[in-house]
């Protein structure tokens, strides 16, 4: 799938139509709950030693209504593969996440990915398995954040980046985030509005 040619992405509506058709063809729900990095809940597996279990939550860090549009537009500016990825099911719904990174350049149909090379997009419908919705704050706070192997889901958009894109027109780089945090703390210290 790797290409250096300019990428012509479809509109979000056209991409969603293609995604929902793939879900329909596989007998999967087309009502979608979109999640982002902060919504993932990775926990150590009780069934498999050294394994991990993926769940999600939208109660503690709900995505803003326009998060999917912001993420799609931002990811579409890159030439990296853009991936519509389905994690699992909840009653009548598909839990999905938008991913983007050259990590996906070598993903094949044998890996479960459906290619749309003219859009430089992949679609991963996943299995019909249910995904755990985490409603317990303690479980979410104690989720695994480090010390695990990379996974496809590590290439999702963060809600923090969505906010930055909406405020500054782009995602900030680490030193800018640090400086912004320091200015906020200084303003609070001086009694000024943050």
Tags for this model:
194 residues, alpha/beta, three-stranded mixed β-sheet, globular
Q: What does this protein look like?
A:
The chain has 194 residues and is of the alpha/beta class. The chain has one domain. It has 5 helices and 8 strands. It has helices at residues 12-25, 67-76, 137-141, 159-168, 174-189; strands at 32-35, 40-44, 52-56, 82-90, 93-100, 114-116, 121-124, 132-133. The strands form 2 sheets. Strands 1-5-4-7-6 form a 5-stranded mixed sheet. Strands 2-3-8 form a 3-stranded mixed sheet, with no helix packed on it. A hairpin with a 2-residue loop joins strand 4 (82-90) and strand 5 (93-100). Helix 2 (67-76) packs across helix 4 (159-168). The longest helix is centred in the C-terminal third of the chain and has 16 residues, at 174-189. The chain is globular, with a radius of gyration of 18 Å.
Which helices and strands, and how do they pair?
Layout: H1 12-25, E1 32-35, E2 40-44, E3 52-56, H2 67-76, E4 82-90, E5 93-100, E6 114-116, E7 121-124, E8 132-133, H3 137-141, H4 159-168, H5 174-189
Helix pairs in contact: 2-4
Instruction: Spell out the helices and strands N to C.
Output: HEEEHEEEEEHHH
Low-confidence parts, pLDDT < 50 over ≥5 residues? none
* Residue-averaged pLDDT: 87
CA-CA gap between termini:
46 Å
Structural class: alpha/beta
